[in-house]
Specification:
This protein is an alpha/beta fold and 385 residues long. It is built from 14 helices and 14 strands. The chain has two domains: 173 residues, 3-Layer(aba) Sandwich (Rossmann fold), CATH 3.40.50.2000; 202 residues, Glycogen Phosphorylase B (Rossmann fold, 3-Layer(aba) Sandwich). Helix 3 links the parallel strand 4 and strand 5.
Length: 385
């Protein structure tokens, strides 16, 4: 039994935060766990262990941000010494910095959840990150693609980068699937994700124009909140899709909606992994995903090169990959792009083929177990020794 600290900015939502939540529950079965949060307000994920709220939320001013870093380092170092922490895991960049600099006698493990090549950093920032990564004992990347780019971007030795996929509590998903919502529609699409640029939901909304030509009564349910809600609402109105696209906001039980849908569509521009893709597979719903960097290809086509990106509709072993859209915020007057039309075609083709949907449903459930929390926590456990 070890004394383990999990350091994360908050548990207000997000993929990395959910991973920290799941791991705290699993680790607490065998170890003593301290969950250190910069901001303990607005917790939406369950956890186990002793929660320590530093009460140092994100600051909007430059001076406040700098002071926060030093205050967090000071407090975390005190916690590590007081409780004789042996292993410290951190999630997201701000927590990674604090974890490394607050090192006491603990083994320091960082985790990287996003494509590092998309992080806009200057020369000196890049140097700082490189030094921090070099000071860590191990750096966990949430996908092979992220790990490869991490090594190339910061010159980290490959033997210090460990790819470990994000976990899913498949047993919990199965329980909630039994409580699924009835959409009462002939065909329905579901998407789950924050309403942000990286998630690309406007491309899916625009693609629905073409889908309706073949399936007039199609419905799209988007679960999530974010800064693009206003833009998406305007786009829906401009395209006269108010009776077909529904922004459902944040849902505490997304699995109930996912399992009731006929297809899960994931039009992301970029990802680190794509947790909800695995959750959709666990729900038994067929998946169509953009072949973005990184994650979806490793989930749906594990035997292929993780850096490959398709230009056509590609039927893979566990789901369908489509070309990534260009990420431009179009309005309703702009014709659909080639990628949006291919996305629409992939949806129509899948909804028109019940045998293919059943095949992907069966395969998806099996694939999801490769990411079960017990399997993934065991991989993390090997790093504690």
């Amino acid at each position: 039994m070890k004394n383990i600290a999990l350091i994360v900015p908050s548990l207000k939502g997000g993929g990395a935060e959910k991973v920290a939540s799941l791991l705290s529950i699993e680790f607490a079965k065998k170890h003593r766990v301290w969950l250190i949060l910069f901001d303990g307000e607005g917790i939406v994920y369950p956890y186990e262990g002793t929660m320590v709220d530093l009460n140092l939320p994100a600051s909007r001013t430059y001076l406040g941000k700098v002071l926060n870093v030093f205050k967090r380092i000071y407090k975390v170092r005190k916690i590590k010494k007081k409780h004789r922490i042996q292993v410290s895991l951190s999630f997201l960049s701000s927590a990674n910095i604090v974890n490394v600099v607050s090192r006491s006698n603990d083994k320091v493990i960082l985790s990287v959840h996003n494509d590092p090549s998309r992080r806009r950093v200057g020369f000196w920032q890049r140097r700082v990150y490189r030094i921090l990564y070099e000071k860590a004992d191990k750096v966990v990347a949430v996908s092979k693609g992220v790990g490869k780019i991490l090594g190339e971007s910061y010159g980290i030795s490959p033997d210090r980068i460990i790819p470990i996929y994000n976990p899913v509590d498949t047993q919990e998903v199965v329980k909630l699937v039994d409580l699924k919502q009835d959409c009462n529609e002939r065909f329905s699409i579901v998407n789950v994700g924050r309403l942000t640029h990286a998630k690309g939901q406007w491309h899916l909304i625009r693609a629905l124009v073409d889908v309706r030509e073949e399936i007039p009564d199609i419905k799209l349910f988007i679960l999530g909140e974010g800064e693009l809600r206003g833009y998406l609402q305007d786009l829906i109105r401009s395209l006269n899709l108010e009776e077909h696209v529904f922004l459902m906001g944040h849902q505490d039980r997304p699995f109930e909606y996912m399992s009731a849908a006929d297809v899960f569509v994931f039009p992301s521009i970029s990802e680190g992994f794509g947790n909800v893709v695995v959750e959709a597979l666990a729900c038994g719903v067929p998946v169509i995903s953009s072949d973005c960097r990184f994650g979806p290809r490793e989930i749906l086509a594990p035997l292929t090169d993780p850096t490959e990106q398709t230009k056509e509709i590609s039927h893979e072993e566990y789901g369908i990959l489509v070309p990534v859209c260009d990420g431009r915020h179009y309005d309703a007057t702009v014709p659909l792009t080639i990628e949006e039309r291919k996305l629409a075609k992939s949806i129509v083709d899948l909804l028109s083929d019940s045998e293919l949907r059943e095949l992907y449903s069966r395969r998806g459930k099996m694939r999801a177990y490769d990411f079960d929390i017990k399997e993934i926590s065991n991989k993390w456990g090997t790093l504690f020794e």
